[in-house]
Amino acid sequence: MRLVLGLLASATLFTSFAQAADIIEPIPIVEPELPYSGWYIRGDVGYVFSSDTEGSFRSYSPEHGIYGDDFRYSNIEFGDTYTVGGGVGYRFAEHFRVDATVDYYDFDVTGSSRCGYSFGGDCRYNDKSSADVWTAMANAYVDLPYLGPITPYFGAGIGAAYVSYGDMRNEICGDGQCGVSTNYVGYHQGEEDWRFATSLMAGASVDLTHSLALDVGYRYTHVYDGDAFGFDKGDKLAGATGVQGRDDGFDIHAVRAGLRYSFF
To answer: pTM here?
Structure first.
């Protein structure tokens, strides 16, 4: 009898535990919030330092109707200027993102070179022009581990540059004396073309809010060689056609600051 009562008590106690277990709800698993999202937009302004390059130009002989060998420019300078730009990007991981950007640059261009042997003496060319440059780049960045609200980064880009030169004022300075009223002055129509371009970037972003960051950095862009100027009016009347001057490509060194807004 005691055995039967013990078994009944054990069964009752087991049933009570089972019913209590049934009413305990499972603890939900909370996924941790990722520290990154997908799309973002950006806007930038910057200061561009002057840089030098070289180039070449063709001579034309109206007596024979032939073009001479290319002569080298001794110097072409792209002056200090500004840049503005914007873009859209996507963050794939906490430390990796990409974006596509469009930037605009407005340069004053000056050049100088020695005259050909036929001029003799201390003769040189004094050239002045301008250039509008648009770049369209696809960029990839690696964001380094956070330093509080500051995130250092580095990156690289590849794309194209549209270079449009204004008309060039070409002065022949006899005996090295420029600005003399008797010097010959010709005007060469500016050329425009699409070119290959590459870039390298480094900088840091500072979180201002959950979605907004201040981006400050340096960007180096190399624009490859292309057409610069055509022949002047005198050469064209004598029969010259096509492009007379080319540049060897040029570098753009820019310090930039901008805002980046992420869509969480």
So the answer is: 0.81
